[in-house]
């Protein structure tokens, strides 16, 4: 109880002290709290940082291993590739070497033979040489032939000239102009003139006149050679203006068969072909080609010798011709011989056309 | 008595007509009279005389018309317009040989001028009549008819086809076999005119058996006939390989070469043309020509003549060389190159030079050996290319030849002059050759420096990244760096700039052009002119 009393006695003091103490505590509470928070934050910060640092270190270790693993793997691959390419390059180089040799061998063996090529070129040049030689020879031959021809021509011309100038030849009495007495030797022309044959004066051929005469014109207009005028159809087949005949009529007229007169229809040398034909017939009918001679007249086989008096080398025809023809050949119209024909009686062929039986004009 | 008087009147009229026609025909021989004659309407006066009763007058009228039409296209047109052709054609079948000759002469004179006139002849049905004339007995008539047919078919393929359709070819082939030289000549000419247009027409001529007869006549002594025959064969051979082979099979080969030695220029030319037409088709045919010694004789032929006659020979060498390297080598050993270079430098005409340049290009483009054979012509080619007087075609051909030869040329001393005078487009190829050869040839490298080539290369200004710059770099890489650096590059550049400045101010150009990239070609052109 005493304690209680003591306590009660002291309760006032205690109360004051309690209050005082609490107030003191209250006065420092905030500051202390702040300090505690600060201390705690610092500590916790340190703790977290330490932890993160720890984590980092762990992560780096993991990454290091992982990355090492990866790059080791990659490097291996790279090395493999490099090795492979190196190997392939080497192989390729070797293959090229082999191919080079082989191809060279093959080309030399089969495609391009150097010696053959050389030989070919040599052959070509030889061929060229021979061709050149041959052509040269050919050209020379041509040239010499031409020269020869030229010389011959000149010689001929000179000979011709010599023949023309033959009258300049010297005679026994008079020396010619090429044989001057003051010269030691005669001119070469003199010798040439001696050799040359004198030119015979040629008979002048009379040219027929270019311009055809009336007779020719009439001959041309005859139906035998040329169509008459107006026989050509007009170029554009329009009927012509004017009093012209129908074209068919004209054409009919133009292509009318030939109606020769009695005289023209009959050949003038009728006898000759008839005789020839008769002879031919006789020859065909013959059994033997040998001439038949009777046995009794064997001695008559020898050739008939005409009498010297009755025969002449001048045949009668030429003899007679001379008589008919003018002596002066300049007046001849044509070179042919005259044909001996009886003159026709022109009057009779016109019977029925220009005159009647009674002699009247139609 | 009265009959005689009548006849005398007729006779006088006839004489007057004859005199008129003869006079006109005589006057028509002189060109100065023709205008007057035409304006006087002589054609309409001559037309009725074609129908005259007297054959002499008909013939002379035809002759006069032919001479008129022969002179010019206008007169020929007037003859066509005057409706004379049908008349001629009508009487061509009926009259005597003199008239036929004269009528064929008129047709020829009309048809030779232009395709339209020839078409007029075809239209009036003259071809059939002419073909009938080819069957005539008289060689003169045949000749005139063949000539008229040839003149008609000369112009184009349709007209030739018309002549062929009229059945002229077999008769022309028969005409070739006639003994008369003139007829042979004209028939060969007509065949050549027919066959020149198309392979089909040539085939028709070949089918008629012309080649054998033509080939027989190559040795004929008559020069004109030879010319016509060779040109006919050439015209046949030019179309296709088959036709060329058929011509070759007629065994023309050693024989044709004799024609190259002929005196006549035309014979030479046509023989060269024939060989060219054969050689151009295939390597085999060229080989055949080479084996027959054709190249050597053509080379000699080129040497023996001048001017245009050379042209086919030059082209023949080019064609042969173009086929393969062996053939090109055959041309080289046949001494073709000296002749070609002579042609290139001596010929006055540009087209012959162009052909020679082309042929040289064909020879030199195969291998380095070939190029070595033609290197001595490169400066001539370059000068022709650079010359302003040469024609465009010649420049083109020269350029192509140079571009063909340079990539094969490994003989550097010949290339070095090109560094100094060549334009950039050729310089590129030259430097390319140097850059290819120098890395492998130490002696050439040394020579290149001592001759000053390397220095010149340093002076060349090339756009960075261009092909030219690449070549320059690869040339520089062949040498140690010091050698390249010692060369006075910088100095040269400075000098150039000064020169450009002077150039620009002299021409009154503003200085700001200096920085303009457009001044670069100016500089080049200036340099190029200076270099000349």
Quote the beta fraction of chain B. Answer: under 5%
Helical amount among residues of chain A, as a percent range? 55-70%
- Gyration radius of chain A, in Å: 76 Å
Q: Helical element count of chain A?
A: 9
From the structure provided, what is the oligomeric state, counting identical versus distinct chains? heterodimer
Structural class of chain A: mainly alpha
Unreliably modeled segments of chain A: 208-231
The helix content of chain B, as a percent range, equals: over 70%
Distance between the termini of chain A: 222 Å
What is the CATH level 1 assignment of the domain at 12-166 in chain B? Mainly Alpha
Q: What is the mean predicted local confidence, pLDDT of chain A?
A: 80
CATH superfamily placement of the domain at 12-166 in chain B: Leucine-rich Repeat Variant
Beta-strand fraction estimate of chain A: under 5%
Outline of chain A: elongated
GO biological process, one term (chain A): establishment of meiotic spindle localization
Protein name (chain A): Spermatogenesis-associated protein 17
Main location (chain A): cytoplasm
InterPro entries (chain A): ASPM, IQ_motif_EF-hand-BS, P-loop_NTPase
